[in-house]
Amino acid sequence: MKIGILGGTFDPVHLGHIQLAQNARAQFSLDKVIFVPAFKPPHKQAVLPLTSAEDRCSMVRLAIEDMPFLEVSDCEVKRKGVSYTFDTVSEFERKYSGATFFLILGKDAFEGVDTWYRAAELKKKIHFLVANRGTCEGRVPEDARTQWIQMPLCPISASEIREAIKQGRNVNDYLSPKVLECIQANAFYRKI
Ligand code: ATP
Fold this sequence. Notes:
This protein is an alpha/beta fold. Helices cover 37% and strands 16% of the residues.
């Protein structure tokens, strides 16, 4: 079985994440892609999530419901503490023994892989499927098994969406309708 893992803060999950997952799945014939919302993202300590891990998980659930091949795991939320991809992959290896794992990520995140917890071991465990984000020119890790996802640049980011909501701008084009409804019902991101 070929399993894609898409980790992130998902604050909120947006159509860029969905496009990333679907393109990776189709291009690399993955059996499924599992979205894994971080409880505590190790690389975003300066900008902590604005919504709870449970709310971020719920938004991912709403975004992918009815989408075949896409799933969400709350393993990092249940584990609590800082969310390390190494721990998540180790947990999935136990759960899906014999599977091959593909970490799906944007180039901005990929550039930081060498600073991740147990990076050298992680690189031996998984393959990396990377999408361009247009904004990054940094060096990418060299000794990682890497393939590039062919997809049009998708200029959407969660931080821009949060800022737009705060300013009262329209974000309908960037979010699944049910996620938008959830954000409005809970008044998420109105005050930052
Ligand atoms: P923020 O703007 O707050 O940094 P984000 O939009 O990058 O958030 P994350 O939840 O941090 O969202 O992203 C999870 C993963 O999805 C990361 O690997 C990131 O690079 C990737 N990603 C997010 N948005 C896009 C996009 N528009 N195109 C390609 N990859 C994306």
